[in-house]
Structure formats: C-alpha cells, structure tokens
C-alpha cells in the first residue's frame, strides 16, 4: 500500500497548483459607466463626459491596465501611455467611433510582453428616438461652374455642410440630380461614414442643361428613409464665343503670326503676360473677355486696350470670370471684319495644404476664451472669420452678417489665436471659426472649427 503514496502526493500537488494558478490569473471583475445613452451629435462633438469605473483582481506588478477606445474599427489608447490601478475611475470625453457603431470603451490587461490577457468592452448605446434631423447648411464658395472643366472631367466643387439632430443609422449622401434621376458625386473614401459638419469637394458630371443641381440628403441606411434634403443650384458658364466671328483676311492684308499667354492657366489674382507678333498691321487691339452674367450665362468684353504696337507684350491680371483674350489687327476696321486670334484663359483657385487646424475645446459659454491653432503650407497671409449659429423656435441657422462675427487678418502660416465667445445673442447655439488664405486679394476657405454653447450656459 505504501508504494502508491508518492503517486497520490503528485496528484494532489498537481490539482493544488492548478487551483492556485486559476486563482492568480488576472481578470476584470467589473467595468461600467455613469452614462446610459448618448446621441450621435453629442458623441461627434467630443464634449460629453463619461465616468468609467472598474475593478480587477490578481494584477501583478509587471502587468498593465489600459483604457482603450474604438475609432475607425481599431482600438486606440484613450490616454496614450497611461496605465491604471486595479480599481479606479476615469472621467473622459466620449469619443465618436467615426462609423455607425455607438461609442465603445475597452478595459484591457496586458502582461509584461505586451500580450492581451483579459479585456472587457463597454458600449454606450445611442438614444433610440427623439431625433428631429435638419440640414442647417449646404453651400459652396463658387457661384458657377465652367463647361470646359465639366467636359474635361476635372471639375471639383468645394462645399460646406452642417447637419444637426442626426439619427444613429443616418448618413450624408452628396449627389447630382439629372433629369429626374440622381448620381452619387462623392470622392472614393475608405470608410462609409460622413461627419455631420465639415467641408470637402464633390465631382459633378457633364449635363446638357444650363445648371447643375447638387443635393445633400440625410438617409437612413436600414430602410432608406430620407430625414432631410437640401439642394444647391449652380449655373453652367458655357465656353462659347458670343462676339462676331471674324472674316478671314485677304492674303495681302494684316495677319497674326503668333499670339500666346504665359501662363494661360493661372491662379486668380496672378499676372498673365500676353505676347503677340503680327505682319502688315499698323496697330493692334486687345479684348479680354469674360462672363458678364451667371444667372443668364453670357460673355462680353471685360477689358479693351487700343493702339498697341504690332509686335509686343501686355500684362493683365487673372480674374475668376475671365474666359479668353482676343488679338485684333488693323484696329481701324470694324471688329467683325478684322482678322483675330484668341487664347482661352483658365482661372484657378489657390488652396495650400493644411497640416492641422484645431480648437482647444468643443464646448464653451459666452464670454469664455477658446484657442485656435493652425499650420498651413503657404507663404501668403491667413485670416480667421467667425460666424454665429442661432437657434430659433423653428430652425437653426448661420447668421453671416451678425455684428458679433469676428475677423482676424494678417495671420502667419503657423500659430495660435485666442478668441472670446460672443455674448448678447439670444439662442446662440455655436460659433464657427473659418480659416482662410488671402492671396492676391482672393480669399479661399481652408477649414472650419466649431465651439458649441453648453445648455448650462443659458442664452448668453
């Protein structure tokens, strides 16, 4: 009987060690929050705070507890580099997942080698109902589009938008209306979700009409319900010559040997040098043509220069509505009889790369100070212009001409600025800070930041 005792001891020792190992395994006992629901607007603003509480056991000195958030389908540290005690609380802004999933936190335990040994997720569900979606803004900084750019397939239209009270399963759809049908005109992107407010470019298709109808819809992805819709119509500036066609000159008459523009395509506000050479002409005339009306698209003479030498140069400034330049020889004869040469002029808008444009806080009260920070790859001065957004009984809208709007000019390519949230505006809901680049007296929008007025602030 004694000879079996060592085996029994080994068996008892094995089960004893197994029990000790199971009891010493690090694990999460509890993980919860004080926030039961949230709306997509609150999550997207990044200003709603949540207090998280957790309790773990058997955490060793070499192990780490981290708090993580889900953004773009990947886990990221809520506070980079931070570790936490076995039991504690953390107050943190609820992050948007940048997808249709509700905000999601994860409490994770990692061993000394960085391997995940235990984790527990916590979802903050979206509020189920009570939404009244509205498109507050859908606008473009351009007043018309050029037919030549449409035909070349290289037209991009800058737009800004803002949607409030967005339901959880809703997404923004940018499209062009064509003869009762519609097509999507968004640029390809790796993720389907579109933020509720921002700026970007859309790419319309060629149409036979005189206008382009752009439409922004807020659509439910589950049942295709259209919560809100807003259209933007832009006239098409036809690249047609409306001046009389010249009669070809006789062989013995004056002739245009060359007529060039350097460059023919230039940023608005930049100089263009026109160079010409003629034969048999006493003098020449230059006509610079452009659009005279966007509502009823037509071209006309914008600048006329007479009695120029038969061979020479002339510098003009590119304007946003220029279309072509005409060289007319033998200026004493009627224009429709004189031989001429033409050059197409293509205006472009300067838009440098924006490395960053941020705001110190997403929510504030009237009278508070917010700090804006930016970095732009540009040698031209920048400006920041604010616009207030006011909520009335029936709508939420931007007040572009409010005396409370602010403007800061002459800013460098990189810097910070402190701005005071305006006071004295009933129903003030938010303030939008627009970053512009100022080039040759032309202002181009580069980005937007917003500060929301908290409910606890009152009316200001």
Task: Please characterize this protein's 3D structure.
This protein has 460 residues and is mainly β. It folds into four domains: 24-123, Immunoglobulin-like (Sandwich), CATH 2.60.40.770; 131-239, Sandwich (Immunoglobulin-like); 255-348, SOR catalytic domain (Immunoglobulin-like), CATH 2.60.40.730; 351-460, Immunoglobulins (Immunoglobulin-like, Sandwich), CATH 2.60.40.10. It contains three helices and 33 strands. The strands form nine sheets. Strands 26, 28, 29, 30, 32 and 33 form a six-stranded mixed beta sheet that branches. Strands 9-15-14-11-12 form a five-stranded mixed beta sheet. The protein is elongated and about 105 Å long. The termini are far apart. The model is unreliable at 7-22 and 240-246 (pLDDT under 50).
Q: Mean pLDDT, nearest integer?
A: 82
Look at the structure and give the CATH class of the largest domain.
Mainly Beta
The CATH homologous superfamily of the largest domain is termed: Immunoglobulins
Helix content: under 10%
Low-confidence stretches: 7-22, 240-246
**Whole-Å distance between the termini?**
91 Å
What is the radius of gyration computed over CA atoms, rounded to a whole number of angstroms?
32 Å
Q: Name the overall outline.
A: elongated
Q: Structural class, judged by helices and strands?
A: mainly beta
| Assigned CATH architecture of the largest domain | Sandwich
Oligomer: single chain
Main β-sheet, in a few words? 6 strands, mixed
Number of strands: 33
The CATH topology annotation of the largest domain reads as: Immunoglobulin-like
Strand portion: over 45%
Please give the count of helices: 3
Count of separate structural domains:
4
């Amino acid at each position: 009987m004694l000879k079996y005792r060592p085996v029994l001891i080994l068996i008892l020792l094995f089960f004893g060690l197994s029990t000790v190992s199971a009891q010493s395994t690090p694990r999460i006992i509890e993980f919860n929050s004080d926030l039961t629901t949230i709306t997509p607007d609150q999550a997207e603003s990044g200003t709603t705070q949540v207090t998280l509480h957790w309790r773990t056991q058997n955490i060793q000195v070499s192990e780490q507890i981290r708090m993580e958030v889900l953004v773009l389908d990947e886990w990221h540290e809520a506070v980079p580099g931070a570790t936490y005690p076995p039991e504690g609380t953390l107050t943190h802004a609820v992050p948007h997942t940048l997808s249709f999933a509700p905000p999601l936190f994860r409490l994770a335990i990692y061993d000394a080698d960085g391997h995940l040994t235990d984790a527990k997720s916590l979802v903050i569900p979206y509020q189920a109902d009570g939404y009244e979606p509205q498109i507050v803004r859908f606008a473009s900084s351009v007043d018309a589009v050029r037919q030549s750019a449409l035909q070349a397939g290289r037209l991009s239209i800058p737009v800004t938008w803002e949607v409030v009270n967005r339901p959880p399963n809703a997404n923004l759809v940018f499209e062009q209306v064509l003869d009762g049908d519609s097509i999507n005109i968004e640029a390809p992107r790796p993720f389907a979700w579109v933020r509720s407010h921002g700026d970007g470019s859309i790419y319309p298709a060629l149409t036979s009409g005189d206008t382009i109808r752009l439409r922004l819809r807020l659509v439910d992805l589950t049942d295709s319900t259209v919560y809100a819709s807003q259209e933007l119509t832009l006239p098409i500036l036809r690249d047609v010559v409306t001046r009389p066609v010249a009669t070809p000159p006789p062989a013995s008459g004056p002739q245009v040997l060359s007529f060039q523009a350097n460059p023919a395509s230039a940023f608005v506000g930049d100089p263009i040098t026109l160079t010409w050479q003629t034969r048999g002409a006493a003098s020449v005339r230059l006509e610079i043509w452009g659009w005279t009306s966007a509502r009823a698209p037509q071209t006309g003479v914008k600048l006329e220069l007479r009695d120029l030498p038969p061979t020479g140069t002339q510098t003009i400034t590119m304007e946003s509505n220029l279309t072509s330049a005409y060289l007319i020889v033998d200026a004493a004869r009627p224009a429709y009889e004189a031989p001429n040469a033409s050059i197409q002029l293509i205006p472009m808008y300067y838009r440098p790369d924006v490395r960053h444009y941020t705001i110190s806080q997403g929510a504030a009260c009237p009278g508070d100070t917010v700090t804006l920070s930016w970095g732009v790859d540009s040698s031209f001065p920048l400006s920041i212009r604010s616009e207030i957004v006011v909520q009335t009984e029936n709508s939420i809208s931007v007040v572009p001409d409010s005396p409370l709007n602010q403007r800061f000019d002459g800013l460098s390519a990189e810097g910070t600025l402190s701005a005071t949230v305006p006071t004295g505006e009933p129903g003030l809901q938010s303030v939008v800070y627009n970053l512009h680049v100022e080039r040759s007296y032309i202002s181009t929008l580069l980005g937007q930041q917003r500060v929301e007025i908290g409910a606890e602030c009152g009316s200001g």
